[in-house]
Amino acid sequence: MIKVGDALPSVTLQEYSEVEGNGCSIGPNPVKVAEAAAGKTIAIFGLPGAFTPTCSAKHVPGYVQKFDDLKRAGVDEVWCVSVNDAFVMGAWSRDQKAGGKVRMLADGSAEFAKATGLTLDLTGKGMGLRSTRYSMLVKDGKVAALNVEAPGKFEVSDADTILKQASA
């Protein structure tokens, strides 16, 4: 499993863009993790799936609500990573009103989850290999803090925890 001090893996995630600009076309666009994280402080949180109960009711809303506080604490970007496709993540971003605050990044083949060792096998529930629930504070591409939830829990990967770590 990835740990504090480790560099983020050099994988590519996908981000759905509804507006053309800044080198991004409408539709899914590749996000090379190592390049996108270079020189920035990023709050990344991962979760089992878009539109799932805890993820939609608590996890994403907390980061959307705390976005301004996170920015004041020195966080440049907030990323939500889930094993879903870019179209689903784009629809979920609209549903959660996350645009301009939380970048909803698709890990469709679970490459990021596998490379970080933050996987959750939900095959028995018909959902396949997913991401476990976690949050991490990343500075210049390296993990500065990592908070991994116990199965079925939502206690340490919330926006308040990352805010405290970013403010320290």
Automatic annotation (TrEMBL):
One of its GO terms (molecular function) is thioredoxin peroxidase activity. Residues 2-168 form the Thioredoxin domain. The active site is at C55 (cysteine sulfenic acid (-soh) intermediate). GO terms for cellular component: cytoplasm. Pfam families: Redoxin (PF08534). Signal peptide: none annotated. Its EC number is 1.11.1.27. GO terms for biological process: cell redox homeostasis; cellular response to oxidative stress; hydrogen peroxide catabolic process. It catalyses: a hydroperoxide + 2 glutathione = an alcohol + glutathione disulfide + H2O. Keywords: Antioxidant, Oxidoreductase, Peroxidase, Redox-active center. Belongs to the peroxiredoxin family. Prx5 subfamily. Thiol-specific peroxidase that catalyzes the reduction of hydrogen peroxide and organic hydroperoxides to water and alcohols, respectively. Plays a role in cell protection against oxidative stress by detoxifying peroxides. This is Glutathione-dependent peroxiredoxin. It comes from Ramlibacter lithotrophicus.
